[in-house]
């Protein structure tokens, strides 16, 4: 589910606005529908009460209900624009039987409303029944259809229902029955609400999109600039401030921070260069002087110490220089890159294997990535005697995997092994030639490319080291 949600600030705010607007309009639609239903129900109850009262008054004045062909209705049901017109002799009748057909259900809420309205007019109500039925199912209308060609033509196309209300007054056994056609629901408010929702959505979303783009565009540029600077890129020209004042102040602060960090990195490079020069020069002189030592064993031990110091110094300087290059990454086939590194070890007779795999191309800094892979292979050979290299594609990432059959690393120390000058147990001591910077340098190379370096013990024994690079 979370994969379907937008990740950007613009997308999430727009989605939240759309959801909030739709929920608010849905609540409004429900409230409008309920209000319209209540008004419609009250209008139907009022019309039925009026029809019962009007019919009773006509009876009291001695008026007889019309006979023969139906006549048009002179009063429409409140709220109806178009509806079935019932003749007066059908709208009000009197009968000795309850006006309910077999299987019909009553509507208690409607009966209570009509009872209240009739009692307010001074009628002594003994019982009220109310039900709805299909127009064609009513016996009186069916009889009219049999007698009138007009009704026979109109009924098959009529889809309205008929409200039948029966009133029995106190002290009487007869029922006074009112019939009225129930008008279809008015769809006008729903259409108006839908149109209102569309207009609100277009206006609000359009305005908010314009405002958010003005905010998110400079933020996206700032995020990309920060990502590139964090991966070790050399600082370029300061970003041009844009957007609202808050975003402009953020860009100004970032430019100042970037300039300060860039100046500190430049000072660090100068300092390390000077240290490297000042240390390598006396080390070279010392290497010449030990040739005068007559004890061969002592001379060899001194030479090994000088070489160890020189190698450690080179790794420190290399670690400091990672990412401090203006050269852009090159599109490289990673399988070929791994093969070139393996060839170096095969030429020295080292037991290194490369598993065949699919072609994977990525933009990389060729020299540094080869250095990182070379460090992992050297690490595997040093502590396990063998190395197995493979190049894979997993979840949109390029994976340079190096596995060995050695003793592995205790789980609680795996994270520490990526820190500078950290070595393992006795089997990984200084005498094996490790300086504690190989894995740190490989991790720096991976992070320079926006990737990661991970270490894990294999279930069958040994260590698995992976450089994962985004494609």
TrEMBL record:
The keyword Membrane appears for this protein:
yes
Chief location: membrane
**Organism domain of life:** Bacteria
Q: Which CDD domains match?
A: HATPase (cd00075), HisKA (cd00082)
Give a Gene Ontology cellular component term annotated to this protein. plasma membrane
Q: Which residues form the HAMP domain?
A: 213-266
Ranges that cross the membrane: 193-212
Which Pfam families does this entry report, sorted A to Z? Answer: HAMP (PF00672), HATPase_c (PF02518)
UniProt keywords, alphabetically: ATP-binding, Cell inner membrane, Cell membrane, Kinase, Membrane, Nucleotide-binding, Phosphoprotein, Transferase, Transmembrane, Transmembrane helix, Two-component regulatory system
**Topological relation to the membrane, as annotated:** Multi-pass membrane protein
Q: Which InterPro entries match?
A: 2C_sensor_his_kinase, HAMP_dom, HATPase_C_sf, HATPase_dom, His_kinase_dom, HisK_dim/P_dom, HisK_dim/P_sf, Sig_transdc_His_kin-like_C
| Protein name, UniProt field | histidine kinase
State the organism named in the record. Qipengyuania citrea
């Amino acid at each position: 589910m979370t994969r379907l949600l937008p990740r950007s600030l613009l997308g999430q705010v727009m989605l939240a606005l759309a959801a909030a607007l739709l929920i608010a309009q849905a609540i409004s639609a429900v409230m409008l529908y309920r209000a319209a239903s209540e008004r419609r129900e009250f209008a139907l109850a009022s019309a039925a009460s009026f029809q019962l009262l009007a019919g009773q008054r006509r009876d009291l004045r001695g008026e007889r209900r019309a006979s023969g062909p139906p006549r048009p209705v002179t009063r429409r049901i409140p709220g109806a624009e178009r509806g079935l017109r019932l003749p007066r002799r059908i709208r009000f009748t009197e009968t000795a039987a309850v006006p309910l057909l077999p299987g019909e259900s009553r509507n208690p809420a409607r009966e209570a409303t009509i009872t209240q309205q009739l009692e307010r007019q001074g009628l002594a109500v003994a019982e009220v029944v109310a039900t709805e039925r299909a127009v064609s199912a009513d016996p009186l209308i069916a009889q009219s259809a049999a007698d009138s060609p007009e009704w026979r033509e109109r009924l098959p196309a009529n889809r309205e229902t008929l409200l039948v209300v029966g009133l029995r007054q106190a002290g009487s056994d007869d029922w006074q029955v009112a019939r009225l056609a129930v008008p279809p629901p008015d769809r006008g408010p729903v259409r108006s609400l839908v149109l209102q929702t569309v207009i609100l959505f277009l206006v609000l979303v359009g305005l908010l999109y314009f405002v958010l783009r003005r905010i998110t565009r400079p933020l996206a540029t700032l995020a990309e600039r920060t990502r590139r600077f964090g991966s070790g890129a050399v600082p370029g020209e300061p970003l041009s401030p844009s957007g609202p004042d808050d975003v402009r102040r953020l860009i100004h602060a970032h430019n100042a921070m970037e300039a300060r960090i860039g100046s500190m990195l430049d000072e660090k490079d100068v300092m390390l260069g000077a240290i490297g020069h000042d240390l390598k020069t006396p080390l070279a002189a010392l290497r010449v002087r030990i040739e005068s030592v007559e004890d061969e064993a002592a001379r060899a031990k001194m030479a090994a110490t000088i070489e160890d110091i020189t190698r450690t110094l080179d790794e420190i300087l290399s670690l400091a220089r990672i990412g401090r290059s203006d050269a852009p990454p090159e599109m490289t086939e990673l399988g070929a890159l791994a093969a070139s590194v393996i060839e170096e070890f095969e030429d020295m007779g080292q037991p290194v294997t490369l598993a065949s795999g699919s072609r994977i191309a990525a933009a990389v800094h060729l020299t540094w990535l080869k250095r990182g892979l070379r460090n992992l292979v050297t690490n595997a050979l040093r502590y396990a005697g063998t190395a197995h290299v493979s190049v894979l594609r997993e979840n949109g990432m390029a994976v340079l995997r190096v596995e060995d059959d050695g003793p592995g690393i205790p789980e609680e120390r795996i994270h520490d092994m990526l820190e500078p000058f950290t070595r393992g147990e006795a089997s990984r001591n200084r005498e094996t030639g490790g300086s504690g910077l190989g894995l740190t340098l490989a991790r720096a190379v991976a992070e320079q490319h926006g990737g990661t370096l991970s270490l894990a013990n294999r279930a069958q024994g040994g260590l698995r080291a992976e450089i994962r690079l985004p494609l």
